[in-house]
């Protein structure tokens, strides 16, 4: 279709020359001319125009469909990569740029690239056709057409390149502006924005960046407009000279009227097509930055990888999980977060992990789930190094409630079901875990019970309190038939009564399950079989609550401080 659409207008042009020449010929001859050949030519021209309009409508239709297909294809690639890319890319600002940019730009960039490519292809075909048509009759005019367009082409390309370079330079600034924009519009910040009256502050910051970019952009665009106006003036002057020359030749009978029309129109059309081509080239240039980012993103290498011949993960856990001199620092930071951590977790045992903020508790969880691999030492699952097993198999055996658990704006049922979605849990199982976390009463109050959509993003959504959301996350975690249950600050948002109930259920549910419980509330921790105290990335104490109190170390100090604060006695 692109080929036909590029070439058919030329055929129409040539037919109009033939029609005019035929009419002029019969006007010049004294006898009444034969109208039949002209009529055939008119029919042909009408047919060409008809086909052209059909092509135009069909190409619009196909273009829309293709746009969607391309966007979906690119999004699919991005989704595939996003769900497997190492967690470190989300936690590292250097990579966050490329990650965020690709994910943000993906919905519209490919469409622009596609349209530009089509326009470019069509323009090139038209140009080749026009040049051949003109070459057939007059090579000097063809040379003029190309020659005159050269300055415009050079100017456009030069400025496209300049803008492209600048755009690259502005990108980090643009990203900061996008960040300020998100603060101004997103729900997360809406309360503080109003309370601290931060709207004006962030608007100023946003506008400052945009203004700065605007000034720089204006300078370049002004230069481009000046250069383009000059080259456009040159074209106008040449068109004037050409028209005079062509009319003069027609006056002297060296050229037919049809050829005069053909040359003049071909020249004008050639200019138009060339401008389209140059514009598309500029757009392609600009968008190539996106492609660069897109491929960089797709090629991001993973550090956490599956071994070529993974060992079978022993299920159920029989000998336990062993941490042997585990050492860890985050990529792009040399500060050690875990140092020589050695621990034996017996099957069925509940271990509580305590320590001050930044002690490395969550990091240890990330290593257990193989979201990162240790930099030193190893973690063994029934004697098998975690690096030797398929990490999907491993994660299948672990259920976690993270501190920053997900709040899915789906129905209550789906929110819980996500914990074990592929085995299609029954209504009864879902209700059982909801009961275990004490959320079933709140669910009963919701308009559509388990079918109520949670959150405020969608129509008929119902918002929950933070504690209720947390209970839903715990229910999701309980639903998963895992060998290792990890709760990272599971009850931070729960009231004391709810906390006691959830922990009782947790205790009940983990009778035969190995569990790791992280909490700052030491009243919670008393339930555990053993308590591990982490200080500055090292294990400083291990024992039962009574042993550690008797030891009178860090745990005892923390416990007594909390007991005084909360009057726990
Ligand atoms: N993605 C990251 N990149 C670099 N450093 C990190 C990253 N995440 C955490 N850290 C650092 O690692 C240390 C341990 O963090 P971690 O989240 O494991 O602590 P924590 O004991 O769970 O703390 P809290 O009780 O506040 O949850 C902290 O000093 C933190 O600054």
TrEMBL record:
Q: Which UniProt keywords apply?
A: ATP-binding, Membrane, Nucleotide-binding, Transmembrane, Transmembrane helix
Which GO MF terms are attached to this record?
ATP binding
Q: Which residues cross the membrane?
A: 34-57, 112-135, 141-159, 226-248
Q: How does the record say this protein sits in the membrane? A: Multi-pass membrane protein
Kindly give the Pfam families that the UniProt entry links to this protein. ABC_membrane, ABC_tran
Q: In its keyword annotation, does this UniProt entry include RNA-binding?
A: no
What compartments host this protein?
Cell membrane
Q: Domain ABC transmembrane type-1: where? A: 1-286
For this protein, the record's SMART domains field holds: AAA
Domain (ABC transporter): residue spans on this chain: 321-561
Q: Which InterPro entries match?
A: AAA+_ATPase, ABC1_TM_dom, ABC1_TM_sf, ABC_transporter-like_ATP-bd, ABC_transporter-like_CS, P-loop_NTPase, Type_1_exporter
* Top-level division of the source organism's lineage: Bacteria
Q: Which SUPFAM superfamilies has this protein been placed in?
A: ABC transporter transmembrane region (SSF90123), P-loop containing nucleoside triphosphate hydrolases (SSF52540)
Q: Could you identify this protein by its name?
A: ABC transporter ATP-binding protein/permease
What species is given as this protein's source?
Answer: Spirulina subsalsa FACHB-351
* Source lineage: Bacteria, Bacillati, Cyanobacteriota, Cyanophyceae, Spirulinales
């Amino acid at each position: 279709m692109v080929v036909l659409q590029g070439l058919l207008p030329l055929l129409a042009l040539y037919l109009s020359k033939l029609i005019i020449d035929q009419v002029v010929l019969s006007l010049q001859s004294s006898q009444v001319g034969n109208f039949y050949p002209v009529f055939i030519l008119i029919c042909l021209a009408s047919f060409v125009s008809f086909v052209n309009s059909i092509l135009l409508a069909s190409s619009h239709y196909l273009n829309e469909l293709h746009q969607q297909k391309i966007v979906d294809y690119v999004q699919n690639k991005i989704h595939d990569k996003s769900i497997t890319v190492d967690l470190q890319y989300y936690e590292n600002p250097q990579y966050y740029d490329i990650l965020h940019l690709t994910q943000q730009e993906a919905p519209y960039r490919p469409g622009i690239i596609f349209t530009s490519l089509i326009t470019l292809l069509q323009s090139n075909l038209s140009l080749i056709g026009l040049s051949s048509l003109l070459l057939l009759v007059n090579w000097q005019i063809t040379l003029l057409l190309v020659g005159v367009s050269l300055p415009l082409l050079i100017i456009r390309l030069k400025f496209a390149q300049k803008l492209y370079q600048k755009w690259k330079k502005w990108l980090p600034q643009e990203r900061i502006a996008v960040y300020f924009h998100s603060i101004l519009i997103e729900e997360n910040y809406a309360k503080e924005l109003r309370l601290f009256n931060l709207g004006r502050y962030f608007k100023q910051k946003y506008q400052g960046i945009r203004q700065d970019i605007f000034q720089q952009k204006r300078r370049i665009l002004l230069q481009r407009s000046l250069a383009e106006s000059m080259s456009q003036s040159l074209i106008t002057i040449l068109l004037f000279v050409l028209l005079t020359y062509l009319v003069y030749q027609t006056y002297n009978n060296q050229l037919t009227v049809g050829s005069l029309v053909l040359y003049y129109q071909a020249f004008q059309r050639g200019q138009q097509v060339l401008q389209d081509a140059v514009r598309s080239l500029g757009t392609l240039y600009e968008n190539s930055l996106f492609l660069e980012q897109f491929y960089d993103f797709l090629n991001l290498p993973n550090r956490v990888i599956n071994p070529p011949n993974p060992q079978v993960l022993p299920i159920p856990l029989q000998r336990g999980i062993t941490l042997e001199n585990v050492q860890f620092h985050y990529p792009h930071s040399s500060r050690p977060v875990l140092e020589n951590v050695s621990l034996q977790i017996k099957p069925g045992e509940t271990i509580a992990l305590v320590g001050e903020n930044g002690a490395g508790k969550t990091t240890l969880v990330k290593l257990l789930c193989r979201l990162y691999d240790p930099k030193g030492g190893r973690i063994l699952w029934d004697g098998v190094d975690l690096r030797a097993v398929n990490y999907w198999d491993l994660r299948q055996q672990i259920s976690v409630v993270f501190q920053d658990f997900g709040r899915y704006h789906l129905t209550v049922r789906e929110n819980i079901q996500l914990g074990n979605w592929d085995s299609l849990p029954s209504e009864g199982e879902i209700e059982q875990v909801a009961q275990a976390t004490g959320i079933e009463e709140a669910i009963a109050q919701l308009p559509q019970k388990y079918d109520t959509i949670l959150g405020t993003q969608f129509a008929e959504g119902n918002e929950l309190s933070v504690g209720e959301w947390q209970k839903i996350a715990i229910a999701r975690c309980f639903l998963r038939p895992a060998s290792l249950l990890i709760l990272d600050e599971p009850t931070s948002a729960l009231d004391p009564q709810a906390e006691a109930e959830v922990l009782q259920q947790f205790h009940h549910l983990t009778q035969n399950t190995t569990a790791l419980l992280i909490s700052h509330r030491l009243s919670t921790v008393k339930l555990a079989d053993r308590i591990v105290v982490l200080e500055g990335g090292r294990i400083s104490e291990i024992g039962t609550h009574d042993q550690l109190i008797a030891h009178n170390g860090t745990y005892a100090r923390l416990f007594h401080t909390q007991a005084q604060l909360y009057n726990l006695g």
